[in-house]
Write a structure and sequence with these properties.
By secondary structure, this protein is mostly helical. The chain has a single domain, classed as MFS general substrate transporter like domains (Growth Hormone, Chain: A, Up-down Bundle), CATH 1.20.1250. Helices cover 81% and strands 0% of the residues. The chain is built from 21 helices and no strands. Helix 17 packs antiparallel against helix 18. The chain is globular and about 60 Å long. The two termini are 17 Å apart.
């Protein structure tokens, strides 16, 4: 073993077979998390037409309204998850966000939809911090990035399902029904999480008793995190990646409708579909599949390369962040829609490589008693900047370029996407800077 490789822990609270089951359950739950979160993106144009919204309102609805409550509530829920039953917390969260997703289908105006999306954010706040903490307890340390990357596949998989299912159902029955169908499966998996996931603290009683006795305040936890230079560098880098990804998501379908409308209609007719259904399937299947492969590969690369040099945990996402910029610009600049979708698939593969390495790094540089808190703080930074500001900023820039600059809606959204993509340079610089501290902090 290399001198800075990560050793395995002594305690293995669950069997290998059960570990696989639990990871699959958590993956499905996280897929539903993103399905309910992202289905709104393929529905953005029909919602805009039906409710008479501007692009900035789409950005507010898909980003800031959701993100503020999602990120803020993540902290107290994570503190609860440090000592309480994590499967029950996850189950209650799934039930809450699923109910509010269904409620989105009954809204009649912008502000009602905003309140329903806030409810989705409140529910989803209780998913990932306790899930990351559970996975970290279930899995040996040297396999942690791969396990968290497997869980993170739920991001592209849920986006795939949301785009494909949302587009098809919206074409057939309208956007309201799409919300209702998206929220329905959560009721079942809320029960599965609460009653079949094992709380390993029962098998780790001695360790958890010591952990409970030594639990520190949130202020003290932040003071510990403040000393972890790597944490803040990867958190800021990941937040920029999220700003780009979340900022692009609500406007990708709009970009294609506005710039490739006639071509999409012709392609859809060849398959007996309408434009929204065809585009949802194309973006979901091509981009979603590539994103799943990228999320999985990111964890595999980080664990395998990290066994020799821990800097791989930040080197992999750094290089990927740099390469995505010209590929994305080429995609939204190409005149052929199917070629553009193909280039976006390559972009999706590279843009998801950071999931496993970043979350595993955050879990591996803190004491076990701070893992859920570290995950929540990381998610607060990523989602407040990325999810909260990304869609709103891209929407505002699109409106300014379309109206005040005079580019029109089609070119306005194109250039808003291009400008925001160049922020990947800052993500690259931050990930690369983390190479200077990660080995010392992760080993410690």
């Amino acid at each position: 073993m290399a001198k800075d490789a990560i050793p395995s822990p002594v305690i293995n609270p669950v069997s290998t077979g059960y570990r696989r089951y639990a990871l699959w359950v958590l993956l499905i739950i996280y897929t539903l998390n993103f399905l309910d979160r992202q289905v709104v993106n393929i529905l953005a144009e029909p919602i805009k037409r039906d409710l008479g919204l501007a692009d900035w309102q789409l950005g507010m609805m898909t980003g800031l309204a959701f993100a503020v409550f999602y990120t803020v509530l993540g902290i107290p829920i994570a503190r609860m998850a440090e000592t309480k039953n994590r499967p029950f917390i996850i189950g209650a969260s799934v039930a809450a966000w699923s109910a509010f997703t269904v409620l989105c289908g009954f809204t009649q105006n912008f502000w009602q939809l905003i309140l329903a999306r806030i409810g989705v954010g409140v529910g989803e706040a209780g998913c990932t911090p306790p899930a990351h903490s559970l996975i970290t307890d279930y899995v040996p340390k040297e396999k942690r990035a791969s396990a968290i990357a497997f869980y993170s596949i739920g991001t592209p998989l849920g986006t795939l399902a949301g785009m494909a299912m949302g587009g098809l159902i919206a074409d057939a029955y309208g956007w309201r029904v799409a919300f209702m169908v998206a929220g329905a499966p959560g009721v079942l998996f809320a029960l599965v999480a609460a009653f079949t996931l094992v709380e390993p603290r029962k098998q780790m009683a001695a360790e958890m008793a010591a952990r409970a006795r030594s639990q520190i305040s949130f202020a003290a936890a932040l003071a510990v995190l403040a000393t972890k230079k790597t944490f803040w560098l990867v958190a800021l880098a990941a937040s920029i990646k999220a700003f780009i990804g979340y900022g692009h998501a609500p406007f990708t379908a709009s970009f294609f409708f506005r710039n490739h409308g006639p071509e999409l209609a012709q392609l859809a007719a060849m398959f007996g579909l309408k434009s929204a259904g065809f585009l949802g399937l194309a973006l979901g299947l091509v981009g979603g599949t590539a994103g799943m492969i990228g999320a999985w590969l990111g964890g595999v690369f980080a664990d395998r390369l990290g066994a020799k040099d821990l800097r791989a945990y930040v080197t992999v996402p750094a290089i990927a962040s740099l390469i995505t910029i010209p590929i994305y610009i080429a995609a939204v600049s190409h005149p052929a829609p199917m070629t553009a979708i193909g280039l976006l698939a390559i972009n999706a593969l590279l843009a998801t490589l950071w999931y496993g390495p970043v979350y595993a790094t955050a879990q591996s540089i803190v004491d076990p008693a701070l893992r859920a808190t570290a995950s929540a703080v990381l998610l607060l930074i990523i989602n407040l900047i990325g999810l909260g500001l990304g869609p709103l900023a891209v929407g505002l820039l699109s409106d300014v370029l379309a109206g005040h600059v005079g580019l029109g809606e089609a070119q306005g959204v194109r250039w808003a996407l291009i400008v925001s993509a160049t922020l990947g340079l800052a993500a690259f610089a931050l990930f690369w800077a983390a190479r200077n501290s990660i080995r010392e902090e992760m080993v410690a």
